[in-house]
Amino acid sequence: MRLWTPSRQFILFWLALIGGVVIGNYWQFPLPTLLWIGALWLLVFISGQVWKIELLALSLFGATAGVILWQLTNGESWLHLSWLIQFQEILVGVRDSIVEKIFLALPEPHGSLLAGILLGNRVRLDRDLLEVFRLVGLSHIIAVSGYNLTILTANIRSVLKPALGRKITLAVAAIAVVSFVLLSGAPPSIIRAAVMAGILLWGEYLGRPQRSLGALALAAGVIVLFQPKIIFDIGFQLSIAATYGLIRLAPVITHTLGSFKIPDWLKLVLGETLAATIMTAPLIMAVFERLAIVSPLSNILVVPLIPLLMAIGIGSVVLLFVFPAVGSVVTLLTWPILQWIIFVGEKLASWQFASTNVSLPGLASAGIMLVFFIGAEILNHRYQNRERPIDA
Amino acid sequence: MRNTVGKFVGVLLLLGLIVFSVNSYQAQSVDGELKLHILDIGQGDAILIDTADNRQVLTDGGRGTAVLSQLSQVLPLSDKEIDLVIATHNDADHLGGLNEVLKHYHVREVWVTGAIGTTKTYQTFLGLVEQNRIPLKKVQAGEVVRFGELEGIVIYPLRSYDGVTPENQNATSIVTYWQYGKQSFLLTGDAELPQEQELLNRGLLRAVDILKVSHHGSQTGTGEAFLKALKPKVAAISVGANNSYGHPHPSVISRLNKLKIPVLRTDQQGRITFKLSLDKFSYTTVR
Order of strands, edge to edge, in the sheet holding B281-286? Predict the structure, then answer.
């Protein structure tokens, strides 16, 4: 078997490009030299050499391209979709009127929690409640970071798939992603998250979730291509790490849980949550200087209810516009779920060991990340080459 | 497929049952009992009157969203209606939270003095009132409102402030006197000593059972003559813990103590709820 398949070379190229962008941020080179080096290694790559040389040429070409990209753009976003803004204003209007209707139908903080879960972070949530969610590792359920849409899509998939089948579930998830992007007013963080979520869905559609690693590299690369500075954005880093965890680590954990007598959907939720938590932990520790230890518990208690909440929530929003009287009654049905989420958050946050203050130097964090990535790759490799029972 | 739909309907019914029971539990009230809540919203004022037949009058809203969670705790789930909102004056620690209330509740009527405020909060307030097409009444002394056995009357300001930009917003505070059977209470906004004197001079004050102490217990108000005229059986101060203004002022507290008027404070006791029947009242506090 060839080790460096074209798809792996593809991933390598994007990684090199991203690396080049980082280098570009720290060191200045004369542009003609860079162009010359880039062209040279590109020539070497396409001229067909021994695979070691070929890989070296590819990485150097990618890296040089990254440095050039940074120097030309200075890290700033250079693709301006100004025509989108007008469209966006209409959407913001739609979102605001949905929020208004929800606010009038539910008490607080339940109303803003529902609006936050349905529509994203532009809705102002009670600051105390936000802090509670942060402490127990639940803030992803409201779209504070791109992480939310990714894990949410994955969970929608896991919970709906056994009931509705693969294709319908994917369609539902895709519609959910698109409407979420539109209604949240399409800020960059959500677009980014939508690209990530789209990748997962695409991989699932092809029936080859493992392949989505290439798509992840592509998406990350394309986003960096248009907005180089974003690689230093913690939200971007978190969503890459979380998505990576979902792609490579989640199946392993879910499989390992196979021997326990718990429902399949719970295994999936657990696998996804743990994978995302593990892969993002070093980053979170380095940047936010704390880690939500109860996060797996709070997620198991809350996340399985989110699809149900979203289903009733979306239904009631539609009703609020069509039959306001019926709608406001139906909206109240979300209250017990919202109250449960608030209760779990507040209860767990009051525990002393809910989260710890730990800080990690940046370099140590990077080292641990690397170890985690390698570990995840090894585990994933073993998982894929496991001995499968043969059904005769 | 049918199984899934069945389960979903079952879950909906269960949720409906929970909502119904919680709502009925919250809505149960003792016959003929009126509740006066001095809400715990930090530094500011937010006072809710909840009548025996579920009509609500909210006087001021504190600052920010704190008033919303307090309202959720004292009103049943399904009650998203407030019959009357009184904005005593335009300061942000009274008006700010009302903006949130207007976004989250169906408000039937709003009372103001008509005095012009200079803040963005005030502009937002007017915008929300207009946007929601809420009837806005500019009131002065003599305005009366009735909800069943409850009767309220505005006793200050004595003249119209419509279109006036006052130097001191506090001096325009709406002061309301409320009578429920034999029980009575006075809500004073941020009225100061000169306004108290005006009321005394006109002979507009009479004994009350409960006094909401003016201006969070600041020394600018609650003079001895005023207290002697009102003879309150209990005084409630709406004030935030460790506020930067030093409210309530020690001199006000000692004046109340001297006249042996028991003092309840939201910074120490949390939300204060007076339960009034036609011939007696009691109170509870919730932190």
Answer: B136-138, B110-112, B84-86, B56-59, B47-50, B34-38, B271-276, B281-286
Strand partners, B275: B35, B282
Q: Is A292 within 8 Å of A137 (Cβ atoms)?
A: yes
Contact A108 B72 (CB under 8 A): yes
Give residue-wise pLDDT tens across range B105-124.
999 999 999 899 888 999 99
Domains of chain A by residue range: 6-73, 84-387
CB-based contacts of A177, cutoff 8 Å, min separation 6: A149, A153, A194, A197, A198, A201
Contacting residues of B for A337, CB less than 8 Å apart: 15
Per-residue pLDDT tens digits for A79-116: 666 666 676 677 778 888 888 899 999 998 899 899 88
* Closest to A84 in 3D by CA, of A169, A235, A191: A191
Global ipTM: 0.84
Cβ–Cβ gap A337/B11 under 8 Å:
no
Rounded CA separation A227/A186 (Å):
16
pLDDT value of position A122: 55
- Contact yes or no for A312 and B15 at CB 8 A: yes
What is the maximum alpha-carbon separation in chain B? 78
Provide the token pair at B190: 């941020």
Mutate which of A97, A102, A108, A168 to test chain B, going by most B C-beta atoms within 10 A?
A108
Tell me what the mean pLDDT of segment A142-147 comes to: 57
